Amino acid sequence: MEHKTGQRKVLVLQGPHAPEGDILRLLDEAFEVHTADSLEQALLLLREDQFDMVVSRTGDFLPLERAAVSQQAVAILNTIGEGVCLVDGEGVVLWANRKMADFSEDVRQGVALRSRQGYDSFRDLFLHQPNLDTQQVRPRRYSFVDDANDRYFEMIVAPMLGAQGKMTQVATVIWEETASRRLQQRINAIDQAGRELVRLDAESLANMNVEQRIRLLQDKIIRYARDLLHFDHFVVRLLNRKTNQLEVLFGVGLEGDERTEIFANIHNNGITGYVAATGRSYICNKPETDEHYLRGLDGARSSLTVPLRLHDHIIGTMNVESHHEMAFSEDDRQVAEIFGRYIALTLNILNLLVVERYKTTDQAAENLHERINEPLSQILTEVSLLMEEYIGHDDLRHRLQDIIDRVAEAKTIVKDVRSAPKQGILGTSDGMEPSVKTALEGKKILAVDDEQFIRRTIADVMIKYGAVVDTAQDGREALALLAQQKYDLVLSDIKLPHATGYEIFAAARNANHDIPVILMTGFGYDPNHSIVRANKEGLSAVLYKPFKVDQLMAEIYKALKVAP
Fold first, then answer.
1. What's the pLDDT at 487?
2. b vs e for 451-462, b when ≥16 Cβ sit within 10 Å of the residue's Cβ?
3. CA nearest 525: which of 321, 295, 236, 221?
4. Which of 282, 240, 286, 284 lies closest to 263 in space, CA to CA?
5. Residues 6+ apart with CB under 8 A from 506
6. Interhelix angle for 39-48 vs 58-79, to 10°?
7. Radius of gyration of the chain (CA)
8. Which of 85, 363, 440, 445 is the most exposed place for a label (fewest CB within 10 A)?
9. Where are the beta strands (DSSP E) in 278-404?
């Protein structure tokens, strides 16, 4: 028949009971008619095309309807993502959908074996409870590994009853769990690594300075990031809440990113600034078109940035970059976030150790003052009474007065310890002033730090030793002083506004190639690798805050090559 476009389609089944010719002519006048000579051909046409009506004899209709429904059911089973099959008591697969057929022979054998195990289990159950309804029977769940391909599978087996109410086969559904299992393995590995990360042995740490503690933490983070997460290019930044700047704690293979000044802001501060400001992780698969991306790794094709979250606070970020396209998935994001939480927790523990050091010193001084003040006062009272009793005995009175002076000195020392600074440099007091001329007499020193307390403390100590001290509160002021003045020694923090510690070092050496420079850092910060770069060019020493006055003096004497 000639097909007419734009009309409704009708399928006519021309089997043994085909419609009369007159009916076909009438249909052809109003519709686009397609004919099928057999039930199989009709089903094929229904599968390939969409029809508005199907015409057949009554005797052909029911078989056609059942076949169509069955065909739709098979089509549905062939499109789902799980394997489906029917298995008999001998483990023979009676029917399988397309997904099941696509599995390897080893997987199909594994399914058949466990389906038979399920069949045997259900058979024994129905044998002991013959009236049991299948809806009351819970499916059996199995899992197995395809060792040849390192793939994991899960499957469930449910009983199916025949016409006589007896179980004749089981229905099995199987799906692959490789991605989920591997993700769980990665999470478990990161969780174990995180536990090792925060397992900071108190006795071991007690013998370490701040530099060694940071180095221990850094080595662990780098090792776990490479071995477990396969991250080769990454940088960890900490948020300075006073300046809102994200300062580099350490990095691996991202020198370009480490030199970039970034603040926690969603605008004009790259993906790292956006993540720190919003607390949301960020996967970038098209750096060349991403509005937030700032250049870090040369030739980067994708990046992953996660926040370092401590409870409800963002304390920093970890940025990872790759030369490969689409290198990071949602699984990578999830695992990196977990790892980031452990990094934040460990950094917090190290910070608490420093804070605890201040609190412990303060508490010990307070306890000492409370316990020793009263006995010292009693000694003063008794000695004063003795002096009144021995008027005229000058030698004894002089000895008693010497005791009074020594006790008063002891009370002053306890008072000084009690009121000593609780942060920054430890151990300063008014009792330090030298009684004789020192090797620092007349030495001109520049102290650079953005913390006023640190600058003032260093200046006070150096002045007491006879040095002439200039101070600068930022990099710009320090560079101006170095251009105008000649100094015998420069002490500078590596974390400064308007300049890095290395830039101060380079300017000092440019003015005087032999000038000794000591860099200072708090909590192990080394933005832009100032210490590493300066070490290669003759840096005299590094002081890790908090440090004691005797440490400061020892490094100064060593740098100036003079004896105390």
1. 93
2. beebbebbbebb
3. 236
4. 240
5. 537
6. 50
7. 41
8. 363
9. 282-284, 302-310, 313-322
- C-alpha–C-alpha distance, residues 19 and 21, integer Å: 7
CA angle 124, 89, 110 (to 5 degrees): 105
Query: What are the backbone angles phi and psi of residue 410, rounded to the nearest 5°?
Result: -65, -40
Rounded to whole angstroms, the maximal C-alpha distance in the chain is 155
Cα–Cα nearest to 504, from 485, 489, 482, 471 = 482
- Secondary structure of 350-381 as H, E, C letters: HHHHHHHHHHHHHHHHHHHHHHHHHHHHHHHH
Residue corresponding to tokens 């025949």? 162
Q: What is the pLDDT of residue 436?
A: 47
CA distances from 14 to 3, 23, 41, 210 (A): 17, 12, 10, 91
DSSP state of 182: H
The full DSSP string for 35-91 is: EESSHHHHHHHHHHS--SEEE--HHHHHHHHHHHHHHHHHHHHHHSSSEEEEEETTS
Residue with tokens 């710009």: 476
Helix H or strand E segment including 176: strand 167-176
- Residue 269, CA distances (Å) to 126, 249, 273, 287, 487 in order: 68, 18, 5, 14, 38
Question: What is d(CA 266, CA 529) in angstroms, rounded to the nearest whole number?
Answer: 26
| Per-residue model confidence (pLDDT) at position 119 | 92
Of 296, 294, 220, the C-alpha closest to 257 is 296
CA distance 102 to 99: 5
Whole-model pTM: value is 0.49
DSSP secondary structure, 440-469, as one string: TTT-EEEEE-S-HHHHHHHHHHHHHTT-EE
10-residue stretch averages of pLDDT, the chain, 564 residues long = 65 65 73 79 73 70 57 64 87 87 90 92 84 77 87 90 77 87 77 72 59 74 82 86 84 70 90 93 88 78 91 88 88 87 78 47 52 68 65 65 72 58 40 57 91 83 88 92 92 87 91 91 65 84 80 89 82
pLDDT of residue 435: 43
The residue type found at 414 is: V
From first CA to last CA, the distance across the chain in angstroms is 115
Tokens of 508: 């000092």
Residue 169, H or E segment: strand 167-176
The strand pairing partners of 303, in sequence order, are 284, 321
For residue 478, give the nearest of 449, 453, 515, 518 by alpha carbon: 449
CA–CA distance, 349 with 346 (Å, rounded to integer)? 5
Phi, psi of 20 (to 5 degrees): -65, 155
pLDDT of residue 80: 74
> Residue 463: which of 443, 490, 487, 449 has the closest Cα?
443
Residues forming a β-bridge with 489: 445
